[in-house]
Prior knowledge:
Blueprint: E1 2-7, E2 16-20, E3 25-28, H1 37-40, E4 55-57, H2 63-66, H3 69-74, E5 81-83, H4 85-112, H5 126-134, E6 136-138, E7 145-147, E8 150-156, E9 164-170, E10 173-177, E11 200-204, H6 217-230, E12 235-238, H7 244-258, E13 267-270, H8 272-283, H9 292-296, E14 303-304, H10 308-315, E15 322-325, H11 335-342, E16 349-352, H12 361-366, E17 371-374, E18 377-380, E19 384-387, H13 397-405, E20 413-417, H14 421-435, E21 439-440, E22 447-448
Parallel strand pairs: 3-4, 4-5, 5-6, 10-11, 11-20, 12-15, 12-16, 13-14, 13-15, 16-19, 20-21
Antiparallel strand pairs: 1-2, 1-22, 2-3, 7-8, 8-9, 9-10, 17-18
Amino acid sequence: MRIHFLGAADGVTGSRHLVETGDRRVLLDCGLFQGWKLHRERNWLMPPEFAQLDAVVLSHAHLDHSGWLPALVRNGYRGPIHASPATCELAAVLLMDSAHLQEEDARRANRYGYSKHAKALPLYTRADAARAIAQFRPLPPGRLLSLGASQVSLSPVGHLLGACAVLLATPDGRLLFSGDLGRQHDLLMPPPEPPPAADVVIVESTYGNRRHPDEDSAALLADIVGRTARRGGSVLLPAFAVGRAQALLLVLQRLKRAGAVARDLPIYLDSPMAEQATTLYRRHGELLHVPARELRSLCEGVRVVATAQQSVRLAGTRFPAIIISASGMATGGRVLNHLKVMAPDPRDAIVFAGFQVGGSRGARLLAGEREVKIHGEMVPVRAEVRHLEGFSGHADRDELLQWLGRLGTPPRQTFVVHGEPDAADSLRAAIGQQLGWQVQVPAHGAVVTP
């Protein structure tokens, strides 16, 4: 068994781990790099190791785990892409939206001339995304799939609809890849299932250096909404269209029913992808731990913004409201329409409810930057900017250690990935000290034979 760490080895995005099993080359995740320019530039490179892939297995649908699939297919990959049925459905929505944004960003850059290139090109197109989606092969959790002399199986880990850990049983041993682990008490998802026995573990570390704050996130959101509305402002909630948007809708509906948020305060869902994802969450309600009646009422009274023109008109309207719009790190999409208008207004509030990758626009806003570039223009930031970490869908350090500790027999080697350097190293140290395991943080491009 040889493992090539080709993404998420020096940061949180671009999850890509290539495993050579002897007779097969299997890629675990095929994610998009986000955040720092140094990382984003990797999206334009085709790793030579990808030239002879036999299969791709996805842990879940988020773009930092699935978003490079259209580029992989564009570069010639014609093999199967295995994932849980719900992940296949969600990833189809995410990839088509990502391709649309790639095309729109290139068109806008060419129209307004703010690209540094003679002609801006999309990383991939909707046609590329459609070809990738056609190669999806649903694999229900718990079912064994043979890949030559090896077998693959999936086990649910919370975090996101359809998200699973991947177990690759090879002639050289059993490799367990955590994907992204969910929380013990998530708003939508049940806790991760216990991990299967493994000889080698690859574990994420997004929150590997911290515990989630002991806060009532719903009460904090209600307070922000109330204060903002009283000063005549609106609340912008940049939200990942899959997962966090549904969690925010659930909480806002509960707050309205309890009278903690004014019932006549309008809520806008400005993300067609979030609307599609909400439909999928309802369809797969058996995978959630939300009562059916609450799932049915997620969008009750919510005004869905259908077209780009309606989004622009909404951004130009000034009255107190709550606007949920993608993307969650304000890296692109319709949320930028609202951010351009709301960031300069001290009456408004911009509230992030998920992890912000270093270098992303969301991370820079939370760091206190007083102006940000949007569509080639510098926009001043005078609005209130807040971060509600309690809405995160990622396990924190203690929950990561708890999940690993349920393995029983220690693996012979553990690799910590998918974290900023301080988070990854902190989890590495905690695993060594508390569990006594052999553990390391691989460098980007590292090749190991555990």
